[in-house]
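Why run this: before we spend reagent on co-expression, it is cheaper to look at a predicted model of the complex and decide which construct boundaries make sense. The entries below are exactly what would go into the expression plan.
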Amino acid sequence: MNAPLRDALHAPVRDPLHAPVRDPMVPVPFRIEKVRRDLSDTFTMELVPEAGGEFAFQPGQFNMLYVFGVGEVPISISGDPADRSVLVHTTRAVGQVTEALDALKPGDSLGVRGPFGTSWPVESAFGHDLVFVAGGVGLAPLRPAIYQAMANRQRFGRVIVLYGARTPEDILYKKELERWRGRFDLDVLVTVDRATGKWGGNVGVVTNLIARGGFDPLNTTSFVCGPEVMMRYAAQALEKKGVDTGRIWVSVERNMKCGCGLCGHCQWGPHFTCKDGPVFRYDRVADLFQIREL
Amino acid sequence: MVKPDNLAPLIEDHPFFKGVDTKLRDLLVGCAANERFEAGQFLFHEGQKAEKFYLIRAGTVAIEIDQPGRPPIVVETIAEGEVAGWAWIVEPYRATFDARAVTLVRALSFDAKCLRRKMEADPTLGYDVLRRFVPIMAHRLSAARLQMLDLYAPPKPAKEKTVKAEKADKKSKGANRAPDARLKKAKKKDGK
Amino acid sequence: MAQPNSKSTTPYLLDMDGLAALISALRRQGRQIVGPRLADDAVIYDDIETAADLPAGWGSEQAGGHYRLKRRDDNAVFGYGLAPQGWKRQLYPPRQKLFAARRQAGGFTVEPPPPPAPPLALIGVRACELAAIARQAKVFGDRAFADPGYQTRLSSAFIVAVQCAEAQATCFCASMGTGPEVTAGFDIKLTEVFVQKHHGFVAEAGSAQGAKLLKALKAPAAGPAEIKAAGVAVKNAARQNKHLDAEAARNLVAHPDHPRWDKVAERCLSCGNCTMVCPTCFCTTVEDVTDLKGDNAERWRKWDSCFTMDFSYIHGGAVRTETRSRYRQWITHKLSTWVDQFGEQGCVGCGRCVTWCPVGIDITEEAAAITGQERI
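The model came back. Tokens follow.
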């Protein structure tokens, strides 16, 4: 062994004090227990490891899901972090792999690598008002944090979920949102870009809901997830309202092949979105949002 | 309608006139009225003279466009603490949309002619009102642009793919050429 | 400066037979020997059998977009400059199987990749290349998620470094602080010298196993003349015409809208050659394959380049659609954001991207122009 180069390796495999490094590129087979169709192109799967055991994760983290012979795709975890017995993923079928995922049925297997990435710092919001701002399927990566916040409800001031969807038919987790709205300790405001049918709720972009407030901006933490454009404007609206940019968190999407900082694809300025993100503190990346094609 | 002198605190309480100068507030009171709309009533209609604007104190107002033979399109909803109507300040002072009370709405209304006259007579008042209106118009404009983007729509290439498949299906000369056509045929057979 | 480093013992002097004996000894250890050899009109790093495979008497002429083999007027075996590709080809092969999966009733099983091939012996590693290896080792040595394949291959490798005796026109290791002197990261360090027409190698150990091996060769100690010649050689190699202001280049990231990006994009073919020859570029993609029955699937990792359009693809389209954005990503990562990520720059000054760019785009010129240090 070559001493100076060994120093460059953080975790040498041959170091007898360390267990051999687990290969992060090899998936673990999971079985699909349940599939629920949320929207015309969006579905939620419940998975359990085939070899048994539990799956622990932090809200906001993601897994690489492998469809046998087809490929892999990064999907955020959307279940309750307190429930380690089942792994929940909500996926929108928009590409080859996600469409192949959509074709799987209960009893089928898929591969899981993860969990990867940073998480929503729910604990950092203790003592604050906590405002979730979600757009479209961006509600899915926030749901674990909402569960965690509700499990620690007494630790926060107001807890508010602001959600923007395309149309009333595109509202994700509709029943759950209705249930949450029924709680006296959680404010849920939903708006749609386009009203259809008998929709009698809000119409307009989700940033309008931020402008309406209902929280104490000087004492607020906000988690924002949705399309990048929506997150940029939502963060600006929060900032305009007086929320400290160091207390706004966003979840960024980039191309990911490995999920663990080895493949280089997800680089965004100095960050590996997969391991330095996907959850970033807004003030640390606000400048990057302004650079085109970064 | 309530007597004007009772309206002063209502004006001060509404976010739109937050921190308004007492002297200006007194000028405003003279043009204000307290109003109430039942769900389904209209605050104003597209094309009508914009004689008032409204500070919403409670309830929701839908800004919508009517179309024949189809339900009206709701462009935006306006909630408590917000403002409905800005056409009163822009010539030729005609409403550009319908405004319908979605729920019971309580609002402070301001008489446009009265207010315009006072604003012209007292540029300080004029500037103060405009200073409060312009950001709202800017916000509405940027919100409308965002809304136009249809940000949550499925990504385009996925759409193009299906379009291409359909095209191939139609253009195909032989049934054995297009897999989609073959599948359809097979399905029909199974159906029978 | 071949003066023995710190507490090292007196250097040995190997002749060609001694070098051959060293290679044989490494082979006897069961190692796969990789070193320079002549192939495809270039000197490349490839499997070698014996010291006779080394490119004796061959040199190269390198410039922007230009590489030609050239006969030397001596019979030096390490006088060829740099091979087109560095040692990442051996330590992080262009195609690696990640796993195989087999369909079984109601699911599939995953088989991890086979254990790595025999340990490597790398013959002829330059100072800049050692720096590149150390940089990749950091990338693949992440605390949470290391790449076991890379770590195994590197930690089991025996590294015979060779100090340069001359610089190519494309070399700028001195600017990057990575060479030409070999200071660390080797098992044995050689400096090729000619003293009174005697061809030899001043050899120093850099590790216990290197020392053991050298001792076993029973070579004579190097004399003052050879040691002096080795020092002169390295000094000569430090004379480089190409320079890069590394500190200034660190600031590339501050100029995302510089007009120069458009100018360089007019020349850049987006071919990705620079990323393939760069000894630190580490990006990869994956490829899924199945057999015809669909019962057996494999997942392969392949070198990738940030110059390809689909590199930055997210559902809906690529993030970096323009050549300027892709070139900007490459060079700012190399010289600027790599520091944020790994605490040092990703460029080691080997100049390969200059040599192998079909249109001769020069990283040192671009960095200078964009950071306002233009010399031309």
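Residues 6 and 55 of chain B are 16 Å apart (CA to CA). Residues 158-178 of chain B have pLDDT under 50 and may be disordered. Bring this page to Monday's planning discussion.
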